UniProtKB/TrEMBL annotation:
<dbReference type="InterPro" id="IPR005475">
    <property type="entry name" value="Transketolase-like_Pyr-bd"/>
</dbReference>
<keyword id="KW-0786">Thiamine pyrophosphate</keyword>
<protein>
    <submittedName>
        <fullName>Alpha-ketoacid dehydrogenase subunit beta</fullName>
    </submittedName>
</protein>
<keyword id="KW-0560">Oxidoreductase</keyword>
<dbReference type="Pfam" id="PF02780">
    <property type="entry name" value="Transketolase_C"/>
</dbReference>
<dbReference type="InterPro" id="IPR033248">
    <property type="entry name" value="Transketolase_C"/>
</dbReference>
<dbReference type="InterPro" id="IPR009014">
    <property type="entry name" value="Transketo_C/PFOR_II"/>
</dbReference>
<dbReference type="Pfam" id="PF02779">
    <property type="entry name" value="Transket_pyr"/>
</dbReference>
<dbReference type="InterPro" id="IPR029061">
    <property type="entry name" value="THDP-binding"/>
</dbReference>
<feature type="domain" description="Transketolase-like pyrimidine-binding">
    <location>
        <begin position="6"/>
        <end position="181"/>
    </location>
</feature>
Length: 326
């Protein structure tokens, strides 16, 4: 089948459709995922085509949604649950981190929980309170969970396939501000393993590492830097836990500088672990300290102020300038 250009949201929809078609044990659950097709229409048309027993509209009860998915997984199903917005995940946090993440170890490997938790996350859409959070580091800190985030439609399609096929629970963060960005999706060509970083732009002077919504921004930064004669490599991390430290190391050994970019607050964010590990691994290669760009250590602001809160071209370029000045 030839590659088709589609939006990131559509790519997830097509991936879920393929999973429902190929495996009768795959179920989709969540608030308004059926008749409405989800608030972002990511599950549009799936209930109509696969029925209310496969695509299930649930009550407004995130803890109940995840708890039910755990029970279904214990009975051999592969549930894909949607948390409607990032800030709504916390009522289900206990189920995720004390049950979903721990069952495999608690049973000494006898029990597998192939559950995917979809979470639209991040800002940039002018949403109200509790609708623009970036809580990925909270889940990456929990052993037993895989945490991933696609940045483009092709990855969104294939990473969902791989997440559903995983026997381990996967937290699948969807960058909601990129839902409408389009890219070519080849339904036959897997981009690579689920937890492998990928160089999306070659460069020699500095590595920009990002995931999800910030990859596109880093590509724009690289374009701007190129006008000044600077060659920046852009690395799409794709996976937040586990992190492809070998892939990052290979890039940094070439460029000798690293700036990590994410929407989440810099304080104890994913970039902190990356900075620490790469400093340990690449101490004798680095020509500047690893720098981080992200949100501020403050509650996410009202929509009219979010552009001041979120990393932008100038803030990332400032970090690039500081790194290159060493």
């Amino acid at each position: 089948m030839a590659a088709e250009k589609m939006a990131l949201a559509k790519a997830i929809n097509e991936s879920l459709r393929r999973a429902l078609e190929s495996d009768p044990k795959v179920l989709i659950m969540g608030e308004d995922v059926g008749k409405l097709g989800g608030v972002f229409r990511v599950t549009d048309g799936l209930q109509k085509d696969f029925g209310e027993d496969r695509v299930i509209d649930t009550p407004l009860a995130e803890s109940g949604i995840v708890g039910t998915a755990i029970g279904l997984a214990l009975r051999g199903y592969r549930p894909v649950v949607e948390i409607q917005f990032d800030g709504f995940v916390f009522p289900a946090y206990d189920q995720i981190v004390t049950q979903l993440a721990k069952m495999h170890a608690r049973s000494l490997g006898k029990v597998k929980l192939p559950v995917v938790v979809r979470i639209p996350y991040g800002g940039g859409i002018g949403a109200v309170e509790h609708h623009s959070e970036s809580p990925e580091a909270l889940f990456a800190h929990v052993a037993g969970l895989k945490v991933v985030s696609p940045s483009n439609a092709a990855d969104a399609y294939w990473m969902m396939q791989q997440a559903i096929q995983s026997d381990d629970p996967v937290i699948y963060f969807e960058p909601k501000r990129r839902y409408w960005d389009k890219a070519e999706v080849d339904r036959e060509a897997i981009p690579g393993p689920l937890h492998t970083a990928r160089v999306v732009r070659e460069g020699t002077d500095l590595t920009l590492a990002a995931y999800g919504p910030m990859v596109k921004l880093c590509q724009e930064v690289a374009d701007a830097a190129a006008e000044e004669g600077r060659s920046l490599e852009v690395l799409d991390l794709r996976s937040i836990s586990p992190v492809d430290f070998d892939g990052i190391q290979a890039s940094v050994e070439k460029t000798r500088r690293l700036v990590v970019v994410h929407e989440a607050p810099v304080f104890l964010g994913s970039g902190a672990e990356i900075a620490a590990r790469i400093t340990e691994r690449c101490f004798y290669h680095l020509e500047a300290p690893v720098l981080r760009v992200g949100g501020y250590h403050a509650p996410y602001p009202p929509a009219r102020l979010e552009e001041e809160y979120l990393p932008d071209l100038d803030r990332v370029l400032d970090a690039v300038d500081r790194s290159l000045a060493y």
